[in-house]
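Blinded run. Sample ID left blank on purpose so nobody reads anything into the name before looking at the predicted structure. Input follows.
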Amino acid sequence: MSLLLTGLAASSGIAIAPAYLLVGSDLSIKKQHTADKNHEVARLRDSFTLTTKELKQIRQRAHQNLGQQAAAVVDTQLEILNDPVLLANLERLIRGNAYTAEWAAKVTTDHYLNLFEHMNDNDYLQSRALAVQDVYKRLLSHLLGIKLPDPNALDHRAIIVAKNVTPTDTAQFDRRYVAGLVTDYGGRTSHFSIMSKTLSLPVVVGTHNATSQIEDGDLLIVDGIHGKVIVRPTDQQLEHYQLLAGEFAREQQVWGALRDQHTVSKDGRKYEVGANVGTLNDIKYAHDNGAEGIGLLRTEFLYMDQTKLPTEDEQFRTYKKFVTAMGEQRVVARTLDIGGDKRLGMFKLPHEDNPYLGFRAIRIGLAKPEILRPQLRALLRASAYGRLAIMFPMIATPEEFTQARDILDDERRKLGRAGVAVADSVEVGMMLEVPSAAVMADVFAPDVDFFSIGSNDLIQYLFAADRGNSRVAYLYQELHPAVLRLVKRVIDAAHAEGKWVGMCGEMAGNPLATPLLTAMGLDEFSMNSSQILRIRSLISHLNNRQLQPLVHRALAARSAREVEMLVKEYVPILRKE
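Blinded prediction complete.
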């Protein structure tokens, strides 16, 4: 009897093959103390040496099999392992508390993971958490003398099923044999996605129970488009998905042909489809997928896992690499967006009962200009090397935007007086993610150069529902008429002042939202790179003039479900979504 599992679609495609369970021994440990601290420190150092050697071997294999981009992902683990602060902290725990090396490693790992917890809407931060877990797992395996499961041992074509898959696991896959991936845990982490897509593997993550429901050798269908896994499919299901796999392969060919083309609708209107990025590694993937710029540069990555704030010069050098890598294409950099679900180890935020509505993003920047001003100076200096735009996150009132822009203008004047080169024109905008700002968009519009709609937070705040909370996630509805009315209001307000509007939340990459957003006049879409060509292809089939009745009916609808049905009625190619 067939079984359907659902999860998150992390990498597109359809795979049909037997399962190969990649589940290792239990590495759980209990709190223990030692009577010989020197011995534990020596064991700890030996485990660091062995883990470093192991990771370097994996890196070499990744470079040989998958190229430099995959090898660079393993570097993240090596950087964590080679951080002298990490080893010093572990030794301090052993000598100060008489912990065993295993328990000291667990205490330290838990500390870092606590910093990352509940970060379910930030791929970069989740990938860092995964890297920390991977380093911990390898250290522990050497301390306990337990061999980890070896992905490289697979010698036949199969779909890997695991509780979680780290980038180093993926780096060891043999592309001749791995047909797809299914995991119990995990999200659409950027590193994981990069490597999965490098291998062109269909991936479904976050099924919660795949390893307990699937046995070695079970025939599986992995639908990486819709986030479905069918275990022991029927003949009818097999036939259906074999047809879909063929259709997907043909679509891939069509999308690939659009890589170097502009995004133009059937009736001739041009749009920009850019990428959301968090690290320099993401740039190549954006280029490979035909990004027309960077619609969201998450600058938080510069601050993560650091023991002190990055200097202005350190930031400048990094931002310069982004803008030069994109040539004449625009890079929209968001100033530091922390607080809520994003925490920094070096910057202790006060405890708040409701941090999502508390001290975060631009509120921190305005209260602590010693953080905001160096970042703005670094961004302004980098603007001389390309086409850089700056946007402020979490703006709720016109006063906040004015205050932030005044600081930016002040720093620009200071740089000018010091003879430092800055681009003649740097666009300054705001991330529109708070309902009060959306309602007041016409008031903001004269003072901004652009809006970028952060649909993830805007929808959460609009419905007062945390999309990461499974009990209320049903309220997170991208197609709800309330969302569409706000988006339309923002677009109309901006266009009335001759300003452009982008969107950088997940809604921008939702094909069912695309016809509505293009017909309402959204100018720029920014999304995970893997979605770019699909959205470009879809836009090329749309005639916005013919979609105006759809917009009117959607805005007057009563529910997201009704809007979805309307979209499929007007755009037949979306009926399979």
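Unblinding after everyone has recorded impressions. The radius of gyration is 24 Å.
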